[in-house]
Design brief:
Oligomer: single chain
Number of helices: 12
Largest sheet: 7 strands, mixed
Strand order of the largest sheet: 6-5-4-3-2-1-7
Shape: globular
CATH class of the largest domain: Alpha Beta
Strand content: 25-35%
Distance between the termini: 21 Å
Bound molecules: adenosine-5'-triphosphate, magnesium ion
CATH superfamily of the largest domain: ATP-grasp fold, B domain
CATH topology of the largest domain: D-amino Acid Aminotransferase, Chain A, domain 1
Helix content: 25-40%
CATH architecture of the largest domain: 2-Layer Sandwich
Radius of gyration: 20 Å
Structural class: alpha+beta
Number of domains: 3
Number of strands: 17
Length: 357
């Protein structure tokens, strides 16, 4: 029979709109003969809705107009019923596997993964631990230090600390790092809340912006870099794709440069030498193993222009997933078409769940 897939999109995260694009693209590509696809949208306020919307309405943000019923996760599988997603009338959507095409907090940080674990519903991608470790840039960096993986110099601080002792924090940052600096909310993505600072005033302003998104932030030494990314697909073995390069049309790869400007581009395969490819590929595997990753991740590196040094930037456990996003394009270049990639991720999730239960 057909496989019942819960395609989950939207969410409370600052990357809500990016999720709509990724999910619409996935929905379009999925084989409707093979899958019953149940569309579960999460509003910006966090309300769950079972919908019958088109990919176009998903992309344009009108999807909630096509709500059939409210939905929630029934976390009591022991009631003798099959696990699934409960609707507002008490009926149950029986779900074989969930595909949470969600980016950022609540979707990519272990929250929804924990909820699906509780409900015993198999799902695509990293589990609770890997998701939360990769989402929290401060915690992630500590794990990478332990692994001896090269990263740019950085400092972390909290809103609490900053409000109490602003001058001392700024002094610490300026004495340990040199401008330009990148200021980032610890838990976010798509460059939301990230700024580049060349002066103390810009640093403070950037910190205030980052604190409006998260109570914990990371400040990094900004380098003049090429941005090289690889895709990881894990099905028991960890497979690493050929590298791609992200070329930003702006000063750095900001939200606008990623999603609004047409001039940003990806070059696949990236023009990097075989030694660099093998270093990056080994580091990607090591980092993915270190967080105990599953299924999918896009791992982002910097190559410093001046020195050629390679640094790990971050792991995205649910990377942008439109047909033209880096992750699917990297696999396409490595021989796995978009639709087959989705099939593969779903089958790996179901097999792993069957093995573990
Ligand atoms: P993603 O959409 O990949 O999840 P993100 O929000 O997690 O992005 P980062 O990848 O950490 O954010 O940073 C966003 C962009 O900012 C990078 O792609 C790069 O262009 C620039 N950047 C970040 N840190 C540095 C740095 N230390 N030096 C130079 N450029 C940087
Ligand atoms: Mg990220
Ligand atoms: Mg991301
Ligand atoms: Mg990134």
């Amino acid at each position: 029979g057909k496989i019942n897939v819960g395609l989950i999109f939207g969410s409370k995260s600052g990357e809500h709109d990016v999720s709509l694009k990724s999910a619409a693209s996935v929905y379009r590509a999925m084989d409707k003969e093979k899958y019953n696809i149940y569309l579960i949208g999460i509003t910006k306020e966090g309300r769950w809705a079972y919908c019958n919307c088109s990919p176009e309405s998903m992309e344009s943000g009108d999807w909630l107009d096509y709500e059939i019923k409210g939905a929630k996760i029934n976390i009591i599988p022991s009631s003798g019923r099959r696990t699934g997603i409960e609707l507002s009338d008490g009926s149950l959507l029986e779900i074989d596997v969930c595909l949470p095409v969600l980016h950022g907090p609540y979707g990519e940080d272990g929250s929804i993964q924990g909820l699906l674990e509780m409900a015993e519903i198999p799902y695509v991608g990293c589990k609770v631990l890997a998701s939360s470790l990769a989402m929290d840039k401060a915690m992630f960096k500590k794990i990478m230090v332990f692994e001896g993986i090269p990263q740019v110099d950085y400092e972390c601080t909290t809103k609490n600390e900053f409000e109490r002792n602003k001058d001392a924090i700024v002094e610490r940052i300026e004495s340990n790092l040199t401008y330009p600096l990148f200021i980032k909310p610890a838990n976010l993505g798509s460059s939301v809340g990230i700024s580049k600072a060349d002066t103390r005033d810009e640093l403070i302003e950037g910190m205030e912006i980052a604190f409006s998104f998260d109570k914990k932030i990371v400040i990094e030494k900004g380098l003049d870099v090429r941005e090289i990314e690889v895709a990881v697909l894990e099905d028991g073995d960890i497979k690493v794709s050929a590298p791609g390069e992200a070329i930003s049309c702006a000063d750095f790869y900001s939200y606008d440069a990623k999603y609004l400007a047409k001039e940003s581009e990806t070059i696949i395969p990236a023009n990097v030498n075989p030694d660099q490819i093998s270093i990056i590929s080994d580091l990607a595997k090591k980092a993915f193993k270190a967080i105990d990753g599953n299924g999918i991740s896009r791992i982002d590196f910097f190559i410093e222009n001046e020195t050629g040094n390679i640094y790990l930037n971050e792991i995205n456990t649910m990377p942008g997933f439109t047909k033209s996003s880096m992750y699917p394009k990297l696999w396409e270049a490595t021989g796995i078409a978009y639709t087959d990639l989705i099939d593969k991720l779903i089958s790996v999730a179901m097999e792993n769940h069957a093995k573990s239960s």
